[in-house]
Write a structure and sequence with these properties.
By secondary structure, the chain is an alpha/beta fold. The chain is 26% helix and 22% strand. It has two domains: 64 residues, no CATH class; 108 residues, no CATH class. The chain has a four-stranded mixed β-sheet, with helices on one face.
Length: 174
Amino acid sequence: MAVLARKPRTEQLQGICCSRCVLGRRSANIVGGGYGARSQYFDAPSEQRNHVSWRELQSATGVMFDTLLIDCEGCVHHIMPHVRHALRSGQIKTILVEADMPEKGMGIGDRIVTGSDCSDDCADYGAFYKEIQRFGFELVDEFNDCDTTRTHAPPGTWCGDFIWHYAFQLKRER
């Protein structure tokens, strides 16, 4: 709550924020609208820039982030190069992931994903999990998108049985 109460550095935010932005070093077209929109990266002239770096984001908000919420329609492999240093340094303590648009057969741990709504540039969540384990993260919770005991979705609400939600915590030193 303290983060939400802080007033962002408006002059810096105006310089970096834009509609439909992406985290990274390259601009991207946002393809589709609403749920399921995805990014396609391209090299853009500076006046068409719609990307922001990790450092710019933290500087503009005045916040040193300690949590990642990754819900980006299978873009985890595009985000990792831009947050890897924050994971390696121990700055990030918690990672929450909606594992959507997985590569078929690529799940976390022993889970094998048998379906997917992805046909191009799909996420290998198994590789993601192995990488964050090397940085000291452990899986602390998981549930399927169709588990209404966890989502509390009303009957008849669409869900993807190939979508899993995960929570990871940085292990405490003993």
